[in-house]
Design brief:
Layout (H helix, E strand, L loop, with lengths): L1 H15 L6 H19 L13 H8 L2 H20 L8 H6 L13 H6 L3
Length: about 120
């Protein structure tokens, strides 16, 4: 219990103590806040909007310029080519989806053409 009383006394002392901010620091903080508010009114633009690069220019720069974009376009074209005309050791995805014939044995060995041609 003495530890809790000591802790409460320390908290009370900390709440009673008021630290003051140095005047020079307060002035710098207020000047910085005024600068941020001024930049916020101009959307933070340091340069006029007309001279900033556009979205595509920023994307091109982010991908490594024209050399990076040409490598990306080549990889995309190769992926499409391999997907549509795969080599012999890869399965043909178009053939798997559209040209697959499926035979299902529904009546235990009786062919459906046999059923249709029987007189019954």
């Amino acid at each position: 219990m003495t530890d809790e009383l000591d802790l409460e006394q320390m908290f009370a002392a900390a709440r009673a103590r008021r630290d003051t901010l140095p005047d020079a620091l307060a002035a710098r903080m207020l000047a910085d806040a005024a600068q941020v508010q001024t930049d916020g009114r101009t959307n933070g633009a340091k340069t006029p909007v007309a001279t900033r690069p556009g979205v595509w220019a920023q994307l091109r720069a982010g991908l490594g310029g024209w050399t990076g974009m040409s490598g990306l376009a080549t990889a995309c074209a190769a992926g499409v080519w391999i997907g549509l005309a795969p080599p012999d050791f890869l399965p043909d995805p178009v053939g798997l989806v559209y040209q697959q014939e499926l035979e299902v044995d529904l009546i235990f060995g009786v062919d459906e053409t046999g059923i249709l041609t029987e007189d019954g």
